Structure formats: structure tokens, C-alpha cells
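Hey team,

Filing this mostly as a record. A colleague (T.K.) asked me to run one chain through the structure pipeline before their review meeting, and I want the input and output archived in the tracker in case anyone asks later how it was produced. No errors, nothing strange. Just documentation.

Input sequence:
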Amino acid sequence: MTITAINKEATKEPRASRVTFAKGIGFKKELNKRVDRYFTTNRISPRDNFEMYLKTLTIAAWMFGSWAFIVFAPVAIFLKVLGCISLGMAIGACGMSVGHDANHGGYSKNSKINYAIGLCYDFIGLSSYLWKFRHNFLHHTYTNITNHDVEIHGDGLVRMSPDMEYKWFHKYQHLFIWFVYLVIPFYWSYSDVSIILGKRKYFDYTVPMPKPLEMGYLLGLKALGLGFFIGLPIALGHSPFAVIAGYAIAYMTYGLVICVVFMLAHVLEPAEFVELNPNSLHVEDEWAILQVKTTVDFAPKNTFLNWYIGGLNYQTIHHLFPHICHIHYPQIAGIVEEVCGEFGIKYNVYPTFTGAIAANYNWLKKMSKAPSVN
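Output structure:
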């Protein structure tokens, strides 16, 4: 199956017809052609790769092994705390490396396998159903577009875009953001249920009502995850206080990891933020060019990050080819950079992780200042 066919097959999310993009200038077509050639020449599949299956088993062993260590190992408390941090990092790896690919349709060419693997999101506290709407549809279609990309809105608590309304507490956002990251997983767990059972809206976009089976997965697997991480350890004799404290440590670690990774991909210079004319709602670039302009890669030579965060440090590649397994991103990056050069499009990369962290901090600090009134 060609890359173009994969993209068409996987693009099944509802699409709002009001926002339009400029006519293609051949950029995405040329990208698809060269990426197709890469897979054909090397006789490898964009999905269903042994390396990905092995990685899934490794992360599952890490996550459940960390849980077992915390619950059963007769060790000092500080080692159990380290076990909770390990569990949180493993949960982050599960979300970024396994569930992320599956919920994008990039894990397997079999949609049932993608669906089943993607339900790991529900087990660790997210709603895979809602995530596909919020992330796959709104974020990936309208990347960094104010009032369309819900991922850069942050419910108004953090001002990520110059077009967002400024509030007094934004003055301190570059400082308190690190504490916000720690509680985000708990907020998501609540808000997912609240949105599905309540307002079912993101901006002007209505979230489709899940079918009974989807609702069962959403609520049932969330309950199963809480039972596994909290209920079972208590049933095995651990004190409720210790269990809840350990759960909090694990999920705060998870929140810190995944929030930082997202911020380094979109919320920093030179990523662009787009405010549309409310009358035309037209983007001046073709969709693929918008993805390059609003996205930043970071630390491409960092071996640990390349494995741990599921290729999300190759965020530009992910946005252009979300339905390809992330293990191929380092090889595809060279192709994308080459085609960007030919079309005169800047391909944004921070060479180091620390450099991207500094750039994100500087951007949040810049956004913490009240905009000047003309």
C-alpha cells in the first residue's frame, strides 16, 4: 500500500468544512513519492514491524514489572518511591510509544489491532475515543490555529499563543507551569468523562456521542485501571495512604514527561501560530506546509529519547506521516529535510533536548507579558 493510500485510508475523522487550506503546490505529493520509494527500495513495511512488537512487549514488561516491584518487593521506602517514578515513566512510554501509534493507525495495517492496542489509553486513564477527536482531528488538522487546535488552548490556564486572551495570572505561567504538568493526568481523567457525559464540545466542534460499546470501554477500562493501580494494592494489604501516595508519584511523573514532550514540539520559537480571518477562515498554506511551519523537531541524535518518546522528537515527521510507525521517523527525516530545502520551506530542528527546553521556557515567558495596546 502506498503512503498516499495509507493517508487516505486513515483519514476518517470528521472534518469541518469551514476552514480551508491553500491549493497544494506539490510539496506533499513529492514527499509521498519519495517516502514510498524509501519503503519500496528497502522492502520494509510502514506498519506491522517486529521492532515495534518487541518494543511493546518491553514497555509492557517495564510497566507491570515496576508495579510488581512496588507491591511485592520487601525493600526500603525510598526504593519503592523510585519504583513509582519508574512506573510513571513506563506509563508515559506506553502512551507515547505504543498507544499513540495505535490510535493514529500507525501500529498495524489491521484496524482491529490498532483499536485494541489503542485501548491501553483508557487503561492508563485517558479516553482513546475522545483523544482521537481532540488530537487526531483537531490538533493534527488545525495545528497551532487559535480556536481550532484545542491542544494549544490549555483551558485558558496557560497562554501559549499570542492570539490568546491575556489574564493576570499568565504573568507567572513560566514558573507555575511545572506544577501544572504534575496534575494534568488527574485532570484529564476527570475531564474526559465530563466532556463525554456533559458539554461534548471543543470550541465550536461537537464531539460525536460514543456508541454503547465505546462508552463501555471508556468507563470500564478507566475503572479497571484504577482498580489495578489503587484497588488491588490495597486489597493485598497496603495502606490506602501509601497506595494513593505511590499512585500520585507515578502519575505526576507521567504528567511531567508527556507535557514537556508536547510543549517542545509546538510551543516555542520558531513554530508559527495562526489566527484565521473570522470571515474567510482560510489558511494561506497547503496543509502539509502548515505542519512544517507549526512544528519543531528536537534532539534527533538522542538515542534514549528516540526510543523512549516514540519518535515524538521527530514531530514534523509525525505530523506529515502520522499513520507510519514511529520507528521509521529517523530515516524519513532526511527525506523531509531534503524536500523542504527544494521547496524553500524551513525545517525546524533543535539539536539538543536542553536547547528545546530553554526555547519553550523563553516562549512561555514571552507570552507571560501583557500584549501592548495599540
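Quick notes for T.K.: The chain has 15 helices and six strands. The longest helix spans residues 77-104.
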